[in-house]
Amino acid sequence: MEGLPSNIRSKVEEWLQWDQNSSTRQEVEELVAQKKHKVLEGLLLSRLVFGTAGLRARMGAGYSQLNDLVIIQTSQGLVKYLLEVEPDAAKRGIVIGHDSRHNSHRFARLAASAFLLGGVNVYLLGDICPTPFVPFTVKQLGAAAGVMVTASHNPKEDNGYKVYWSNSAQIIPPHDSGIQESIEQHLQPWPGVWDTQAAEQHERLSDPLDRMAPLYYQALASSMLDVALNGTTPLRFTVTAMHGVGHRYMKEAFKACGFKDFVPVVEQMEPDPDFPTVRFPNPEEGKSALDLSFRAADAADSSIILANDPDADRLALATKQDGAWKVFTGNEEGALLGWWTWQRHKQRSPHTPPEDVYMIASTVSSKILRAIANKEGFNFIETLTGFKWMGNEAVKLLSENKTVLFAFEEAIGFMAGVEVLDKDGVSAGVYMAELASHLHTKGLTLLQQLQIIYQMYGYHASRNSYFICHDALKIKAIFERIRNFSGPKTYPESVCGGKFAVSAVRDLTTGYDSSQADGRAMLPSSSSSQMITFSFSNGCVVTLRTSGTEPKIKYYSEICAKPEQSDWAALEAELELLVSAVVEELLQPQFNELIPKAD
């Protein structure tokens, strides 16, 4: 410890006293021996805080990364907070699930140990499962909360801790800050908490997976319009699990809903936490992540690809038409599934008044649902980015006896129905297969139906992408420059040499909205994340924001045509010019050395 500053030394001593994992202990000891004080400072003097419904970070030693000790501390804080605000939580219990990433199995059992020591019953889904199985189980069992150990589509070095509340939706304020405060009050590991073997044998721990999986599939099957018809489709579907948990769950879902077996991408079929065949285990990356899917589909003469991310809560779609593969954007998938959900609803519940029916999308997603709602007479609601907001909005509507049909986010996340109040890539895959089969009986493809939707409700063009930036101070400087563009508290008035005038600015970091009479944004604001939306006089909307789970600056855009407008190419060209100007003039990617999304 010689030469260590006193503040770092005390944290090193604390870590070595509390941590019983030999690997992370050794990591800290080696950093001490190598006198890497700056690294130790970063690892031990700051703590992970709850972001998008929990934690997500790189695995390794220290309070700023994910490891055994941080999982224990987080779980101790969560269970203490849970018992404070949910008086019957001990009896109702907490659901725990995990994916197939490195350490997920162990993290789930360490969490179970803490919850049991806290006096709460534990429902541990004992095998790997999709993320949506946790909120599904919370709802089915009436549990007080749920935890899913997953980092979704993040790189293999990452893991996460996702929290659901008793309403089966992801946590939102004030629970996130309340849990964070409770964590900081219960940092020292409780006696016996490291003994995962004792936890697994505890009388108050049970595994409900064998009960929950059949209920999930039954719910899917009963929601189908015609299970028998599904089995007659000549379409061949290719499905990839992207080295994650999805293969066997999608296989069972297809079987339950009457579909013939799909063509698997064999190389990505079995769980592998190293994700060896993809640079990023994220089907949202498009063609770069779907190469093996294209090959498998071509070899099997399959025309439709359904791709899950590693925890199976997202769905990517690709179809082959005229010899070429088309990868749909999340907004295009949202248009298809939203339209299909409405068609299914009219057949299954024709007497439900449209004014009692709702669809939801996040503010950075396409407004195609709004266009459909306006014409068909049902309601559309816009929320902040993230399914935690959409799920909780659905909870509120359901409490008012409203019918919630569908919610989506452009990042290929879809919630069809309310059995799972979160995005669900398994159910989305089955509904997309049902839609494709239905269209095939009418001689239509998914791409053709998308064009029909645009002709009926207006073309919606979008251009979304991101830059990678690991420097938090640089990101803050970029957004502060935008907020003080030509003087203190001034925003850009136009881009592209005045060609595109800004008609309104909404800044959800500061809570400002120039379109409101009082200058205050209608949606909740948060100073902990960056998000600015520009509305332009030509009707285009562009949003710049930071990711809550990755080192990214994202940009989203959309311009909408009226149904009678037919020159879609001109609209696309106008959008391309405007977005390019916004990116170059406001984000300044070359000056700021931002790394663009890989092709």
Automatic annotation (TrEMBL):
Localization annotation: Cytoplasm
Record-annotated Alpha-D-phosphohexomutase alpha/beta/alpha domain positions: 48-186, 227-320, 350-443
One function term, GO molecular function aspect: magnesium ion binding
Predominant location category: cytoplasm
CDD domains: PGM2
PROSITE patterns membership: PGM_PMM (PS00710)
GO biological process: glucose metabolic process; purine ribonucleoside salvage
A Gene Ontology cellular-component term: nucleus
Cofactor(s) listed: Mg(2+)
Keywords per UniProt: Carbohydrate metabolism, Cytoplasm, Glucose metabolism, Isomerase, Magnesium, Metal-binding, Phosphoprotein
Similarity field: Belongs to the phosphohexose mutase family.
UniProt-recorded name of the protein: Phosphoglucomutase-2
Originating species: Hyalella azteca (Amphipod)
